[in-house]
Specification:
The protein has two helices and eight strands, in the order E-E-H-E-E-E-E-E-E-H. With 136 residues, the chain is of the alpha+beta class. Strands 1, 2, 3, 4, 5, 6, 7 and 8 form an eight-stranded antiparallel β-sheet that branches.
Length: 136
């Protein structure tokens, strides 16, 4: 299953955005706090719980500054997944997030809409945060 976020045009330098997203401690500004709890993060790893669903853990697997960040799942995530953040451009950036998971079709039907919402919210929050905070 692959899910692609909406693309967002961000008026911010790619280097500033990449430096920000390359540290999971900063993701707390992007993740909807009303939808997760038990947020824990280091620079390269994070974990959180989605109430009544699962505990998710992730690690930064690859950094290609300033345009690509690959994130992969860790245990105790309920299934293996990867999330790739792409940043196109330098002064003005078009950001997108691809979420890929190997799940059975039944689980895929159940999680597709919530995951699509999640990557769209994450990318929209990145735009908002970058334009309001990283440009100063």
């Amino acid at each position: 299953m692959k899910i692609n976020s909406n693309k967002e045009t961000i008026n911010c330098r790619a280097e500033n955005i990449f430096d920000f997203i390359s540290n999971f401690k900063n993701f707390e500004h992007l993740v909807p706090q009303d939808k997760v709890n038990n947020w824990n993060a280091t620079e390269n790893e994070c974990s959180f719980a989605i109430p009544n669903l699962a505990t998710i853990a992730m690690e930064i697997a690859e950094k290609q500054a300033p345009n690509r960040l690959l994130i992969k799942s860790k245990q105790p995530s309920p299934f293996d997944f990867s999330m790739t953040v792409e940043l196109e451009g330098n002064e003005t950036v078009v950001s997108s997030i691809e979420f890929a998971a190997d799940v059975n079709p039944m689980l895929g039907m159940m999680v597709k809409n919530p995951l699509t919402n999640f990557v769209n919210i994450l990318n929209a929050q990145l735009k908002s945060y970058a334009e309001n905070t990283l440009n100063t």
